[in-house]
Amino acid sequence: MRALIVEDEPRIADFLQRGLRTEGHFCVVASDGESGLKLALEGDFDLLLLDLVLPRMHGHEVCQQLRMKGFKTPIIILTGMDSPDDVVAGLRMGADDYMTKPFSFEELLLRMEAVMRRSRDMASEDAFLRLGPLEFDRQSLRFSVDGKEIKLTAKELAIIELLMSKPGTLFSRERILSNVWGLNMDPLTNVVDVYIGKLRKKIDRNPDPSFIETVRGLGYRLNLPQTSDPS
Q1: What pTM value is reported for the model?
Q2: Exposure pattern of 182-191 as b/e (b: 16+ CB <10 Å)?
């Protein structure tokens, strides 16, 4: 699971990040509301853990703006504001759950599982991505071209899922690096280009045109090649 943590208290952010990584999850941390909003809209996350009292933009506004922009990812509010009015306000803004600090990490994991399960049930139609000859089953993590399953590594699956989730959208190398490898990677590394090359060799029916288009100097996007008219 890919989680975005929007928390301005370094000690709490570090506690959450280390705990979730130990559980096998990928985490990105934003320390203020504005950057959290931007990352949430530009990234590809499965869950958002959101503090309320944040620099530059209050958590309520972050939550409200995300929902107004069609952001469907589950949001759990983690905050010290524990009055009934605060809880109601957070849920009305579009949060899926609300936990007050201090909280048990074990309880947080259970709450995360619950909101993710509800989200999957509500969006089961999104569990299967199909774009022309390309098919990706998010539940079984199976990818196929023209009905033939293609064996991909975990990183390759993460890249193709990201590209298929927003076909035609241009993803910079930095954005792919952040979503698939995390923010700790050297931005000058060529690992994205290497993996795109590996993906093309595995999934393309013909080398030209490729399913994955290179926009020189900018990044990559998924475009389905036009089929030629047999007439």
Answers
A1: 0.55
A2: eeeeeeeeee
